[in-house]
Design brief:
Order of helices and strands: EEEHEHEHEHHHEEHEHEHH
Number of strands: 10
Distance between the termini: 22 Å
Structural class: alpha/beta
Radius of gyration: 18 Å
Strand order of the largest sheet: 1-2-4-3-5-6-9-10
CATH architecture of the largest domain: 3-Layer(aba) Sandwich
Length: about 290
């Protein structure tokens, strides 16, 4: 596989990291339009390596680390809300010329679909892998009880400490405990780029505050209005063994004016790791 080069961009005073496969050319270069990959919660941009390499012939391929993940800066004195992630994605698309095709997983998929509704002129096409936002309908209203619970939960992050591991290999083993379909080689690759050394131990790069968000966030009924403004074609990819499969899929598809779906057999939530060839073929056919 080709090795990517690392770059940085600014968003809301944060220095965010992204990797490119091939040179990042002139933003107006129509012969190599930008294709952006967006990872999910507790993940990082280099998890896309073997997928990204499949698209370098026709695109400027970029994968970035969400704020608080990978090599991007952590938020201090703030939260990791969906709207902040939206601002970051728009900033990156502008860096790359103002319009892009986006492939995004899980949290990244939710961010990308909402961004596409809020800034439809920034998107050529959109692929959301397990990321159509099924979980946001459970977000509470800003009642006194909900706000108290939010304050207590937020204060609890001060006492959180990252889990420590003796080695990269131990982190890779932990990843295979979570997803048994990961090969030893892929798990080691993900752990190598997803961990950093802290004294004599290793910890994950993501901020242990990354689950924090503002007390009031976008809810499902509000997101539906935003999704209705997505003007680009959308492909929804789900794993047949995922927690979002089955009865949720027709509802996901109906949320977008122009959407189609693919269910990948023998795959869970990390569809692109469980069945990478099927995901690549689905994306290429869609593009």
């Amino acid at each position: 596989m080709a090795s990517p080069s690392q770059h940085y961009f600014q968003s809301q005073r944060l220095r965010l990291s992204y990797w490119s496969w091939g040179a990042v050319g002139d933003p107006g270069d129509e012969t190599s339009p930008p294709l952006i990959f967006v990872h999910g919660t507790r993940d990082h941009s280099r998890s896309w390596d073997r997928i990204a390499n499949e698209f370098t012939a026709d695109h400027t391929v970029v994968a970035y680390d969400l704020r608080g993940h990978g090599d991007s800066q952590w938020v201090m004195g703030g939260h990791y809300g969906i709207t902040e992630h939206v601002v970051d994605l728009v900033a990156l698309i502008d860096v790359l010329g103002g319009r892009a095709t986006v492939v995004a997983h899980s949290l990244g998929g939710l961010v990308a679909t909402l961004t596409a509704g809020l800034f439809p002129d920034h998107f050529e096409k959109l692929v959301a892998i397990e990321g159509a936002g099924e979980r946001i309908h459970r977000r509470p209203l800003a009642t006194p009880k909900a706000l108290r619970e939010w304050a207590v939960r937020t204060r609890g992050y001060d006492s959180n400490r990252p889990r420590e591991y003796d080695s990269i290999e131990a982190g890779a083993a932990r990843m295979r405990e979570v997803n048994a379909q990961l090969s030893p080689g892929l798990a080691h690759h993900l752990a190598t780029h997803g961990m950093r050394q802290l004294d004599e131990k290793y910890v994950w790069k993501f901020d242990h505050w990354m689950g924090s968000s503002a007390p009031v966030e976008i809810r499902d009924e509000e997101a539906r209005v935003i999704w209705g403004d997505v003007s680009c074609p959308v492909l929804l990819i789900m794993g047949a063994e995922s927690y979002e499969r089955g009865q949720h899929l027709p509802r996901h598809v109906s949320r977008f004016p122009d959407a189609q779906s693919v269910v990948v057999p023998d795959a869970g939530h990390w569809v692109h790791h469980d069945q990478p060839h099927a995901v690549v073929e689905a994306i290429k056919h869609f593009l």
